[in-house]
Design goal:
This protein has 9 helices and 9 strands. It has 228 residues and is of the alpha/beta class.
Length: 228
């Protein structure tokens, strides 16, 4: 036990996040498996769940970039949606997501390997949630070492301007969101707020901003199109 403890201490000294050392992280009062193939959940993302719960339950939900499956499974555990599809392009991340599904014994969450930019969807959803890789290529270079060295790059940055997902949603939501549905998206720095706002204003969305516990604008909630 002392040897195991010393190994843990040495890993932590090198900067490895304690969640990866313990292979576990908490979110919304639940514990989940995590490893270096999955992003460590942040408390700020819990706001997505709180917003979704206000108008649930939904008939169908899509979680885009599910990672360890934390948002999808939490929505199920909180009885916020009847049927949840969760997608990711990382097979390794999906393996952890399926372990978390078994751990929490949820039956209404299904995981799929899909690329939101390339794959075709044959149904529309009442609720879509997404915590996209919103860090720009430039900002990624300035991240703390313990993030860059350990957390999956693909879950942090789009290797461009950090806006790829918001640009895609502003143009393609009509293909995956039901007419009276909503999408809840997390954003990064406050400086991106006006840019993201203009993207959706241009395509005539109704939207509402939400602050996280730090008082920063963190979540944009998008409603049906104005013509409805």
């Amino acid at each position: 036990e002392v040897n195991i403890f010393n190994v843990f201490i040495n890993r932590r000294i090198k900067g490895e996040p304690f969640q990866y050392i313990l292979k576990e992280s908490s979110f919304y009062g639940y514990n989940f498996f995590v490893n270096r193939d999955t992003l460590i959940p942040r408390p700020e993302s819990e706001t997505i769940i709180s917003i979704a719960k206000k108008n649930g339950p939904y008939c169908s939900t899509l979680d885009i970039g599910t990672g360890a499956g934390i948002l999808a499974i939490t929505l199920s555990l909180e009885k916020t949606s009847n049927n949840i599809d969760a997608i990711d392009i990382s097979e390794d991340a999906l393996k952890i997501a399926k372990k978390n599904k078994t751990k929490h014994n949820v039956q209404n969450v299904n995981f799929f390997k899909k690329d939101i930019f390339k794959d075709i969807f044959h149904k529309k959803y009442d609720l879509i949630v997404c915590n996209p890789p919103y860090i720009s290529k430039e900002d990624y270079l300035n991240l703390d070492k313990h993030i860059k060295l350990y957390e999956p790059k693909i879950a942090l940055t789009d290797n461009k301007d950090g806006l790829s997902f918001y640009k895609f949603f502003s143009k393609n939501l009509i293909n995956i969101l039901s007419p009276k549905g909503k999408i809840i998206l997390e954003i990064g720095k406050n400086k991106t707020k006006p840019i993201i706002e203009k993207l959706f204003q241009k395509n005539q969305f109704n939207f509402k901003w939400h602050k996280d516990l730090n008082g920063d604008y963190r979540i944009i909630e998008l409603y049906q199109w104005k013509q409805y």
